[in-house]
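> tool_call: predict_assembly(chains=two)
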Amino acid sequence: MSAVSWFGVVFVLGGATYAMRAGPILVLADRELPAAAVRLLRNVGAAVLSALVVTLIADPGAANRGITVAEVAGLVVAIPVAYRTRNLLITLAAGMAAFWLALWLS
Amino acid sequence: MTATTDLPQVSRQALADAVPLFLPAIPFALVVGVAIRQSVIPAGAGMFSSPALMAGAAQLALLTLAGTASIWAVMSAVIVINARHIMYSAALSPAFKDQPRWFRWFGPFFLLDQVFALTAPHSADSPAQFRRYYLVVSAVFFTGWHVSLAAGLAVGSVVPAAWQLGYAPAVMFVGLVVFGLDRRPAVVAAVVGATASFLAIGLPNRAGLLVGALCGVVAGFLADRTGNDAK
């Protein structure tokens, strides 16, 4: 494919991504959402971000798809640390330390 | 997080929240920079994909799948990976109710995972405070992402692969999930979302992410209806 058509592909994908990000805001911002919709949307953060974590770790695109012991160890440590400290850098340091330790031990 | 009318203070809070959150994204940005060099997509179009998509995972899929799959397969992969932003946008729409028109059109361009995770808890702030917080967080991610990506493009990935820093964003997002678990339905949504996306991991185009996310949202909704809203 030529450079021009690749620019076209990227442009279309950029437009599609923007439409997905902007569409609901532009359509819904002026409306009063029904209580049920509000209850549904309240859990978007928890549901999407936790699904994202699993996708990042299990990496469906890679040949070695799946979750390793070290990756689980990192999460097992990171979750209570996040809950107790509410501090992202401490959570990150603890999770990575547990992950590296488990990698080194295995 | 405390309410304040002082906009410079809102900016400082936004910087303090966004900068540490950006750090784990740096190795990933370096990887994407290297992928631009190695992709069959010409470098110009590859670099353009960065501001055009503002989404690292989708961008990496585009750069690495190009040439190995049909153009339609590549494009649908990018769209499926990015479709979660529809949910972010809907969830954040009440915060845009009293915002000026320019911000409604301009703001969503930056609605990436981290920007959503940081700004959603500020939905109830005053319109001016929310806008300031959102714009500062967006500026950190837009600038930081492009600077790191340029570094990856120029010098390659300077971080040794053995460090496995690719794991860091997952830990960071786990932290963000935990910070947001203030109600029992949210816990249900997180657990079901993670479990369902794991079970659906074999679906093409990383559609397992979407399936898991939708299952989690519905499960949280049902928990909200059947149980009480207490912790």
